[in-house]
Structure prediction request, 450 residues.
Amino acid sequence: MAQNREKFSSFGALMAMAGSAVGLGNMWRFPYLVGERGGAAFILLYLVCMLLLALPIFLSESLLGRRAGSNCFGVFKNLPGGGKRWKWFGLLAVVTSMVIFSYYCVIGGWSVQYLLKALGFGFSKAASQAEIGEMFSSMAGGVWAPLIGFALFFISTAAIVQSGVKKGIERFGKVVMPALFFIVIGIAVYVCTLPGSLDGLRYLFIPDFSKITAATFADAMGQSFFSLSLGCGCIMPYSSYMNRDDNILSHSVGTAGIDLLFALVAGCAIMPAVFAFGVNPGSGPSLVYETLPFIFSRMPGGGFIAILFFVALLVAALTSSVSMMEVVVAFFIEEARLSRGKAVAVILVICCVIGTLCTLSFGPLSDVKIFSYTIFEACDKLTSNILMTAGALATVIFAGWILPKADFMDELTSSGKYSSTATLCSIARFLIRYVAPVVILAIFVMGLIG
Ligand code: PHE
Prediction:
């Protein structure tokens, strides 16, 4: 096990992990899913999925990463029980992260463009809702604007990762995560003072159980996975940079708690505004890029709120993309013995190709189809419905059934330092061994069919 790697401080580890978890999933995907899938009923299901499924998987990734003290390929190759066959799952996680990173940078690039728009002339009061919506499709469907956004986002991520584990990733997380929290809380408080906003809060917090269906359940599970960055090895390198004295259980619960809090606060920043301006809450993925700019254009002080919102969206996306890139960088550094700089350069080349194709699949390449999906959609479906689920399944089976129980408990209790948590660790092990694999397999099959 590698001894001389850079290590996070305890707070730095928590902020880095929370940074990976909090991202577009919280500020873009969660609010529109809540809008589409029935408000509070969806939130309730999401809570159950977080607790019984996502948190145990997160714990598995974290304990495996720190036990092995290496990137995700090293986890499956070097830990007791791993080796020849298992290491391919590690490689799968690296590939998954690389693909997600490539298309995540496309959406991150849109946030760059929208921040520039908000900083420039804001969103014109004269424009109708349809015209503001049109602004999005012509931006995303163009060539240069989305490519420039993509490149700026991509290069910013690379610059942080290139600066190293402590000076880059930890420092960035420690500064921006608390700032992000205050920005999003500030927007939520302001929006809740607008007349008519109470209906939005009601929609968020009073459940209507008739809205709960199998599809809602699958969406809630998928969202809990995506939001905690599971199934693509992101948590493993970060945990390998944790000190042995840090408590994995409390860091995992802390990360999941922060992630949930952010999703709820983002919901409170968006839904009340949607209701206050009488627009449709169920507008789907276009909620943040089409509906919100329209609302900002009408809201008192909306120009300033728009800037704050898109800064928050961008920063949240950056801390997540950093964690995806680090999966691949750690792999190249540890397995191919490249320097950090060279590893970053290799990824820049590979992801530039995939990302450019994804960007252009909204415009000039929109007719190129893979099994009836555009290139962007194909990358999204391939990763979220197949690769991430397969990665999560491999992780829980490895942590629950292959890694010896003694190693599992020793790592989770930091060699007995936190022996008072032994009962909780045993409950977690039960969920990891019996509940998680069955539920993940069910999502996997649903994903393949659907
Ligand atoms: N958790 C991130 C978000 O909520 C997305 C992500 C997925 C990050 C997979 C890393 C890996 O936006």
